[in-house]
């Protein structure tokens, strides 16, 4: 930068006090300050990652290309197949584009992605919010290999094999990550759930070496909705009940410690590991069992997010940030090894993109309430896929 001439003018002897000179120096100042301001922003706009893909904003872009798949994808789960279920507003939902601050996020190129993943396998372990992400990924990758077939080996709950690339992508359902079983009381009536905090669930304990990339999550089941006080979780370590007994959140912390330590010990170091943070819910006007709804026609504004999600405001959707805090503190010392996939903030905006009342089944809403928790497909999880694909590729060595 050249500051010399500006300095010369502003330090001119005041005796001269010529108004023309003053005008010239002001113009020069203006010139320099605008060039200075312009400089840093232009080159960054399209610079590739690494950059923070998790912070940014949604921009309404109707001219954005259509989603890569539709309701005919064979890997759909019915309740999330919003095109088939004739959800209103699907075109609008898919016209919003996530624009990270300071860099571009391009849509996944399924052929390039599968090409880079040739002879590799990608595994997901966790609850249905991880499954929501997998379904999107399967439908997107199928564009590059229509011969993809369902794959459910090795205790996978859902998955596909892509023969053209010899790639397997699968989801292992394990909502608490740790092993748990319902116990029978002495009278044979089913009662509490025993959770072995130090034992990974059967669904994934012996399969991690098959995968080259693993994405874990857990969080949505750690509440009294799923495990009411009459049939609580009871925590065991080394086969013995933990004393004094842990409440559900303390149990979550202890399970996380053990699962993270298991992953660090047992999963090969060369495996690329991610931990995906919570997917926020958007129940408005009441919780899921109190007629809470999400019939919104556009994303939330930035200044509405704290009102919805900050635990201090005690709204019905506060748990996502609270649970994220616990996960982040358990993972903070492993960050180099297990990468955080922080999809929470970008998803917080999208109150408009859940299946809501379009669940594809009669009476589903009357029985279960609206679904303001999972996401329509195509929809927001396709953006999760773009981000995940970017991170997988930028963290994989080219061979
Ligand atoms: C397919 O990939 C697996 C690794 O995931 C590898 O062991 C196997 O040899 C590959 N098969 C072919 C035909 O390349
Ligand atoms: C996992 O592998 C170990 C060691 O081979 C074996 O003892 C155990 O039964 C296996 N567990 C499951 C659930 O397959
Ligand atoms: C939910 O709505 C139904 C029908 O409008 C009503 O009968 C019921 O009392 C409501 N439930 C709650 C918890 O507000």
Automatic annotation (TrEMBL):
Question: Which key words are in the record?
Answer: Membrane, Signal-anchor, Transmembrane, Transmembrane helix
Tell me which residues make up the Trichome birefringence-like C-terminal domain: 105-390
Enumerate the InterPro entries for this protein.
TBL, TBL_C, TBL_N
Membrane topology term: Single-pass membrane protein
Task: Supply the Pfam families for this chain.
Answer: PC-Esterase, PMR5N
Q: Where in the cell is it found?
A: Membrane
Which superkingdom, per the lineage? Eukaryota
Q: Where is the Trichome birefringence-like N-terminal domain?
A: 50-103
Which family is this sequence assigned to?
Belongs to the PC-esterase family. TBL subfamily.
**The protein's name in its UniProt record:** Trichome birefringence-like N-terminal domain-containing protein
What is the organism field in this record?
A: Brassica rapa subsp. trilocularis
What gene does the UniProt entry assign to this protein?
A06p038470.1_BraROA
């Amino acid at each position: 930068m050249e500051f010399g001439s500006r300095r010369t003018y502003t330090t001119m002897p005041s005796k001269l006090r010529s108004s023309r000179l003053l005008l010239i120096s002001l113009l020069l100042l203006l010139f320099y300050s605008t060039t200075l301001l312009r400089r840093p922003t232009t080159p960054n706009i399209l610079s590739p990652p690494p950059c923070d893909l998790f912070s940014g904003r949604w921009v309404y872009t109707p001219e954005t290309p259509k989603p890569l798949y539709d309701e005919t994808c064979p890997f759909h789960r019915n309740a999330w197949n919003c095109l088939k279920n004739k959800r209103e507003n699907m075109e609008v939902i898919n016209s919003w584009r996530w624009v990270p601050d300071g860099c571009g996020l391009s849509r996944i190129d399924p052929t390039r992605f599968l090409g880079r993943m040739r002879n590799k396998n990608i595994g997901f372990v966790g609850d249905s919010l991880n499954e929501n992400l997998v379904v999107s990924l399967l439908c997107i990758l199928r564009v590059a290999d229509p011969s993809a077939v369902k794959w459910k080996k090795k205790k996978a709950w859902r998955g596909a094999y892509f023969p053209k690339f010899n790639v397997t992508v699968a989801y292992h359902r394990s909502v608490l990550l740790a092993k748990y079983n319902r116990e029978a009381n002495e009278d044979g009536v089913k009662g509490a759930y025993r959770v072995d905090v130090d034992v990974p669930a059967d669904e994934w304990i012996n399969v991690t070496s098959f995968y080259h990339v693993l994405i874990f999550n857990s969080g949505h089941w750690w509440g009294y909705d799923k495990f009411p006080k009459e049939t609580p979780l009871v925590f065991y370590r080394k086969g013995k009940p933990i004393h004094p007994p842990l409440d559900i959140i303390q149990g979550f912390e202890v399970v996380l410690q053990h699962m993270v330590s298991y992953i660090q010990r047992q999963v090969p170091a060369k495996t690329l590991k991610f931990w995906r943070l919570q997917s926020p819910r958007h129940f408005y006007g009441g919780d899921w069992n109190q007629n809470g709804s999400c019939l919104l026609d556009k994303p939330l504004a930035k200044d509405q997010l704290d009102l919805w999600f900050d635990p201090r405001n005690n709204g019905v959707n506060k748990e996502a940030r609270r649970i994220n805090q616990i996960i982040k503190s358990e993972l903070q010392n492993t960050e180099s090894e297990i990468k955080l996939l922080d999809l929470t903030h970008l998803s917080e905006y999208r109150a408009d993109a859940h299946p809501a009342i379009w669940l594809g089944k009669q009476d589903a809403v009357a029985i279960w309430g609206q679904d303001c928790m999972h996401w329509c497909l195509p929809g927001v999880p396709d953006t999760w896929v773009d981000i995940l694909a970017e991170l997988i590729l930028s963290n994989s060595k080219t061979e």
